[in-house]
Amino acid sequence: MPEPVAGLELGAEGVRLALDGLPVLGGVDLRVGPGEMVALVGPSGCGKSTLLSVLAGLVEPDDGEVLVDGRIGGDRLGRMTLMPQRDALLPWRTVLDNVALGPRLAGAAAADAERAARRALMRMGLSGFEEHYPHALSGGMRQRAALARTLLGGARAWLLDEPFGALDALTRADLQGVLAATWAQDRPSALLVTHDLDEALLLADRVLVASPRPMRVVAEVAVDLARPRRLDDAGGRRFAELRGELLGALRAAGVLA
User: Fold this and answer.
1) Does the domain at residues 20-80+157-257 carry the CATH identifier 3.20.20.370?
2) Of 47, 87, 161, 234, which has fewest CB within 10 angstroms of its CB?
């Protein structure tokens, strides 16, 4: 398997985008430092998923710049891993082949990629489904397979669009721990879109608050909780204070009444 490498520095400066005449991004400014985990929270439909597509190079902004390691990121396509809300598994590949695709694209030999994929599927609770095709899996199982593929990809930056949204509460808590441990080991840069404030505080170094569409980043909360974090931390005093800060920022942005 490829050796871990330092995370990319990602940035957006005044990024604007309209789709079919509808303003979606209204001048987004943000930065994700090398090896940093940043969460982005905001109302549904405000443009968070669109922003990830712009950062990944799938969509070009109408105005503003995307920066990668301080340089204008015109060559960013393929340099980071985007995990969309829908699992995007390849329907003609088995679950094992889908998950092994990540390390294969990162340069691993076929046998090494398969071994890594089997271990990842075991950790995700998908042992016994290696030779199944995606259509035979439930939505939550497909999302777990997609997460396994993302974490094995070896990319220097992760763009994660609600990776746990389709999962039940117990599985979500387990896989949050898997994501945190993998990130701590490899230290890619990561931008996590989520609607779950507790999830944002458990995983991120900073939480950014997005406004209603056209989206801008209107607030930032630094998460000064020691790592590694556990689900039990959500019951602590400092955690409650940070949650209160986020709720206040969402109210100020007009997201909450």
Assistant:
1) no
2) 234
